[in-house]
Amino acid sequence: SQKIEQNSEALNIQEGKTATLTCNYTNYSPAYLQWYRQDPGRGPVFLLLIRENEKEKRKERLKVTFDTTLKQSLFHITASQPADSATYLCALDDGTASKLTFGTGTRLQVTL
Amino acid sequence: EPEVTQTPSHQVTQMGQEVILRCVPISNHLYFYWYRQILGQKVEFLVSFYNNEISEKSEIFDDQFSVERPDGSNFTLKIRSTKLEDSAMYFCASATGPMNTEAFFGQGTRLTVV
Per the CB < 8 Å rule, is A93 touching B55? Predict the structure, then answer.
């Protein structure tokens, strides 16, 4: 069956360090993968999109990698700040481009 | 900055009643979506809408659900006869292209069925 797995346990990290979040998938062949941020009681906010022919994408302090062989994406936040504390969602397409399928998300807590 | 607007922010309804959740997508967007998130669970796809018709719908989107774009600006989700298990946060999203482009989500409507 198809699965998108993100660490269900919260990731606690000290301010200034790099946070690395993992998204693994099985039985998908996505053409692209997206990362979103979600704050409690709010809608997802788009962060980055990476396509299957791209190995890495960067935006300010954010970096995403996409390994279609390992079926994994890594999401990095460098120089993390308490304001980065949120749940981060991985989402990918199922080949139809008509919808996104989301992972359960990983909660990141950045402390001083 | 343009945003997707959803109303109401919170709706409480009795089981069996009809509800309409409203969304105003970003004005130049052509693709529209509804997703839902049951408390503590993942965001789930309900339906996609393009060119005034449904592009795709999930198993959740059964005959009790319908969508409409009545006037070129609003995008609505109707649940005909609500069930307790319909209680969730419902998110509308819009995009300029299909889901291989950035999607903009609204802040959601929290639906509570009692």
Answer: no
A22, A29, A73, A96 from A9: Cα distances, Å: 12, 26, 17, 31
């979103």: which residue's tokens? A36
Query: Chain A neighbours among B 45-74 (CB < 8 Å)?
Result: 45, 48, 55-56, 58
Q: How far is CA A93 from the centre of its chain?
A: 14
Q: How many other CB atoms are there within 10 angstroms of residue A37's CB atom?
A: 18
Q: Is B60 helix (H, G, I), strand (E, B) or coil?
A: coil
Nearest CB partner across the interface for A102, out of B42, B56, B108: B42
Share of chain A above pLDDT 70, in %: 100
Spatial CB neighbours of A104, under 8 Å, sequence gap ≥ 6: A4, A5, A6, A8, B41, B42
Instruction: Count Cα neighbours of B42 within 13 Å in the Cβ-side half-sphere.
Output: 20
CA dihedral B91, B96, B99, B101 (to 10 degrees): -110
In the structure, what pLDDT confidence band is assigned to residue B85 with cuts at 50, 70 and 90?
Answer: very high
Dihedral Cα B99, B104, B106, B111, nearest 10 deg? 20
Name A23's Cβ contacts closer than 8 Å, sequence gap at least 6.
Answer: A4, A5, A6, A33, A35, A72, A73, A74, A75, A90, A103
Residue A68 is encoded by which pair of tokens? 């279609």
